[in-house]
Amino acid sequence: MCASDCSSEEGERELPGVFAIVDAPKPMFSMRLGRASTFPDGGPQGGASRRQVAESLEAQERLRRELDRTHEAYRKGQAAQAKRILELEAETRALHRALEGERERIRLARTAREHVPAHGSPPTEILLRPLVLRSRQGEYLGVTDAQGTPLTLSGLIRLVEVGWGADRVVASFWDEEAGGWSLSFGVISAGHCCSYVLRVRPMRTPSGNRVAVLMAMRVGGAPVPHVHLVRMFRQLRECFQQE
Questions:
Q1: Organism's domain of life (predicted)?
Q2: In the chain, which end has fewer C-beta atoms inside a 10 angstrom radius, N or C?
């Protein structure tokens, strides 16, 4: 009743109060919420965490790139090592083939030398005689191995030609002379050359043995003293009997 009967004057008196309520300042808590919402990253602590995450991701990326480079270098090293191993294996096979070929060549050369008689050489009967040296007292000094097999003139030639390895080059020839034969040969080894001359004579010992006596020897054109020949024969005997 009162409200409906109120005069317009009373209504006008109440309106300023209504507008005052509408235009009143916002509460304090709304201002605080406004200030907190001004940090889109979630506040100072949220921004620092994001920077740390970004730095961590960058560090991980650097480590990944470094690991990739290390893997690539290791892969290249392994590939180079495998390639070098294959090259060394191929070189080894080539060396083996060359060695076998050289061995076969030497074997064929020795076989040909054994089966083809040299022109102008002494008869086989003389070449197969035991090689001896006559001492000043008239004794015949020979060379035998541990089984008692004597060193023959052909055995001495073979010893000179192939007994000291394949790195020597030997050239020899025979000359027939009064009562015997002269063997001349040159040896080239390690760039040095030396010449030898052996004079041998077939003889029969007082006990009836057929031998080839070494009468004299020259090395480099100089005669070898008899005492040195005796020493050489003794050394040869010791070497043969130790085998």
A1: Bacteria
A2: N
